[in-house]
Task: inverse folding
C-alpha cells in the first residue's frame, strides 16, 4: 500500500497545533492520492476524530456498564464499549493503510468530559453520561454525513458507514435510559464551543509510545471493521 501514496508519509502527520478548525478551513485540499481514492484534509481529520471520540467515550462506557444504577444505563455502557472498540479497530486499520498518524489521547475538551464523569456517581453520573453522550454523538452525525457526501476515498467511506451505524446505535441506547436532558442536548449541539483550537485537537502520540488499543468485550456484537484486509 505504501507505493500507492504519491506524497511522503511525513506530510500526513497532524501537527499539535493543526486543530480540527484549521483543517476544516480547507476541507477539499487533497493531501494524498492512494489507490483507494484521493484523500482530503477533511478525510484525514475524520479518521483522527473517530479515534479521538472512542478514546474518551470507551472508558465512560466501561464505568456505565459496571456502575450504572439501572439496567438501561448498564446496557448503554455496554453498547458504548462494544461500538467504540469496533470503531477503534477500524480507524487504526484505515490510518495504517493511508499513513495517517493517530493520537493516543482524546482532545482536552473530551478529556474534560471524561474527567467530570469520572468524579460523578449514582443518578448524577447516569444522567450526565446519557446527556453528554447523546449530545456528542448527535454532533458527530453531522460530521459523518459531511464525509459520506464528499469523500472520494473508499476506505474513509467504509469507516464513515460503520461510524454512522454505531453512532446511531449509541444514540438509541442512551435515549432508552430515559435520562437524556434534551434541552441541554440542544444547547450543546447548537452552540459553538468558545475554546482555543488546541483544546479541540488531540495531542500527537509520543514517539515510540505503544499505540493504545480499545479492547472489544468477549461477547462483542459489533460488526468487524469493513476496512480490514
Result:
Amino acid at each position: 500500500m505504501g507505493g500507492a501514496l504519491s506524497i511522503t508519509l511525513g506530510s500526513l502527520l497532524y501537527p499539535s497545533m493543526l486543530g480540527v478548525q484549521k483543517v476544516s478551513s480547507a476541507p477539499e485540499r487533497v493531501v494524498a492520492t492512494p489507490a483507494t481514492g484521493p484523500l482530503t484534509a477533511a478525510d484525514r481529520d475524520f479518521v483522527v476524530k473517530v479515534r479521538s471520540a472512542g478514546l474518551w467515550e470507551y472508558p465512560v462506557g466501561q464505568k456505565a456498564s459496571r456502575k450504572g444504577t439501572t439496567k438501561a444505563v448498564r446496557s448503554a455502557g455496554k453498547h458504548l464499549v462494544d461500538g467504540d472498540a469496533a470503531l477503534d479497530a477500524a480507524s487504526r486499520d484505515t490510518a495504517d493503510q493511508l499513513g495517517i498518524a493517530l493520537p493516543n489521547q482524546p482532545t482536552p475538551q473530551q478529556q474534560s468530559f471524561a474527567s467530570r464523569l469520572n468524579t460523578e456517581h449514582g443518578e448524577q453520573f447516569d444522567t450526565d453520561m446519557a446527556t453528554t453522550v447523546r449530545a456528542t454523538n448527535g454532533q458527530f452525525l453531522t460530521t459523518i454525513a459531511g464525509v459520506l457526501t464528499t469523500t472520494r476515498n473508499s476506505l474513509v467511506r467504509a469507516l464513515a458507514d460503520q461510524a454512522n451505524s454505531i453512532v446511531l446505535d449509541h444514540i438509541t441506547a442512551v435515549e432508552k435510559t430515559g435520562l437524556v436532558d434534551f434541552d441541554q442536548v440542544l444547547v450543546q449541539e447548537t452552540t459553538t464551543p468558545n475554546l482555543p483550537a488546541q483544546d479541540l485537537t488531540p495531542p500527537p502520540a509520543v514517539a515510540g509510545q505503544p499505540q493504545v488499543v480499545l479492547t472489544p468485550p468477549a461477547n462483542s456484537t459489533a460488526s468487524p471493521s469493513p476496512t480490514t484486509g
